[in-house]
Design goal:
The chain is of the alpha/beta class. It has two domains: 62 residues, Phospho-2-dehydro-3-deoxyheptonate aldolase, domain 1 (Alpha-Beta Plaits); 249 residues, TIM Barrel (Alpha-Beta Barrel). Helix content is 36%, strand content 19%. The chain contains eleven helices and 15 strands. It has a nine-stranded parallel sheet with strand order 13-12-11-10-9-8-7-14-15. Strands 2-3-1-4 form a four-stranded antiparallel sheet. It has a two-stranded antiparallel sheet with strand order 5-6. Helix 3 packs parallel to helix 11 and helix 10 runs parallel beside helix 11. The longest helix has 17 residues. It is elongated. The structure holds phosphoenolpyruvate and manganese (II) ion. The site of manganese (II) ion has 5 residues, from loops.
Length: 337
């Protein structure tokens, strides 16, 4: 951290800043320029109240040298994080393929989809039991019954299950029942939820918020990791832009940026990004080509009659056909699934 004082700052002002820094166990290294004093700050600057310093008339600006996230930062953890779920490792050479419907609708539906995506090569089954819907009048998910059906599908197919947790009140149930807990885009900054998930050791699929920056996403990962849970998987699922043709805008640069900034695995959700089923296959190929650690794709056995997100769901047949080109693209980077 570097503090730049205003040209009118006095020696007393400088001494006050030095006192504040020392009270925060940091050391001040002032440099006297022709017009301004610049103070380099050495030590753990995380505790320093920047707003309080900026409120002082004689402080011109504060510059950050390091990023505010530590545990999620590649600088302090140069090698990629590997997250084990059952016998699969997320973030290594094997790509993570998560497939399934937006929401669990019935026993017949989830079992049929689970068996088909498993036969095609998916490694995980997704399915919402508690759904975050824009309208309070829309289907809210099968809730507890939905979780039971996911468990049944896991038992029948062996596929580990991924499902979204919306409320802190259900956390123990999710820890017991699901293999990866999804935090949806709308809850990316539900800090109480993130803190509670930090107290568990469950793998967390953390989706990027609707208009969250990379730093905000990584700060949310930091909330979970600060509690002691290092098993965080990032997910880019499209962001809000001025474009309305697609549901969101898929930001594939997120893979490159987040891999540079962080050691955490990142997977792509082309379904919620595009909002259109016919874009999902090409975007999936692009995501693997750009170096994503995997995909989470909405797949339905009857998209036209899906209760939720049918327009962006590909059929089980199209999903099966997509696997071969994805394997070929993965091979270029010595990856497989
Ligand atoms: C979902 O995965 O079904 C979902 C609601 O995702 P998101 O939070 O990315 O909108
Ligand atoms: Mn959905």
């Amino acid at each position: 951290m570097v503090i730049v004082l205003h040209p009118t700052a006095t020696q007393e002002n400088l001494e006050e800043i030095i006192r504040i820094l020392e009270n925060n166990d940091c050391k001040a290294c002032p440099t006297y320029g022709e017009f301004q004093i610049i103070i380099g700050v050495i030590g753990n600057t995380q505790q320093i109240d920047r707003d309080r310093l900026l409120n002082k008339k004689y402080v011109d600006k504060i510059l950050s040298v390091q990023q505010p996230y530590k545990k999620a930062n590649r600088m302090f953890h140069p090698e990629n994080s590997l997250i084990q779920v059952g016998n699969q490792i997320i973030g290594g050479t094997q790509l993570t393929m998560i497939a399934g419907p937006c929401s669990v609708e019935s026993e017949e539906q989830i079992l049929d989809i689970a068996k088909k995506v498993k036969a095609s090569g998916a490694g995980f089954l997704r399915g919402g039991a508690y759904k975050p819907r824009t309208s309070p009048y829309a289907f809210q998910g099968m809730e507890e019954e939905g979780l039971e059906l996911l468990k049944l599908a896991r038992k029948e197919t062996g596929l580990p299950i991924v499902s979204e947790l919306m409320s802190i009140t259900k956390i123990d149930k999710f820890v017991d029942d699901v293999d990866i807990i999804q935090v949806g885009a709308r809850n990316m900054q539900n800090f109480d939820l993130l803190k509670a998930l930090g107290q568990t050791n469950k793998p967390i699929l953390l989706k990027r918020g609707l208009s969250a920056t990379f730093e905000e996403l990584l700060m949310s990962a930091e909330y979970i990791m600060a509690g002691g849970n290092d098993n965080v998987i990032l997910c880019e699922r499209g962001i809000r832009t001025f474009e309305t043709y697609t549901r969101n805008t898929l930001d594939l640069s997120a893979v490159l940026a987040l891999k540079r900034l962080s050691h955490l695995p990142i997977i792509i959700d082309p379904s919620h990004a595009a909002g259109k089923w016919w874009m999902v296959e090409a975007l999936s190929k692009a995501a693997i080509a750009v170096g994503a650690d995997g995909l989470i794709i909405e797949v339905h056995n009857d998209p036209d009659n899906a209760v939720c997100d049918g327009k962006q769901s590909i059929t089980t047949e199209r999903f099966a056909a997509l696997m071969e080109p994805l394997r070929l693209i993965a091979q270029i980077d010595n990856r497989n699934f």
